[in-house]
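Sample intake sheet
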Amino acid sequence: MFNNEKYYLEATKEFESGSLDEALWSKSLAVNQGSERKAKYSYINQRAKELQKEAIKESISNKLRNNAVINFIKSQ
């Protein structure tokens, strides 16, 4: 299973560098009624979840691709 701390770190670094998902930031501000402090933590939490989902999808895709290659090689 995935260790999610690295996704929180990545999301925090993205936030601090100003490399934001603008739509997610807008949503975080709206949900938190304009409170930038609360929106920051909401953004980081949601972004970390998105990064983890992306990593899981990529891992599954790689496994499927590897299995396809192995099956192809076996069929030769």
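Comment: The chain is about 85% helix and 0% strand. The helical segments are 5-17, 22-31, 36-75.
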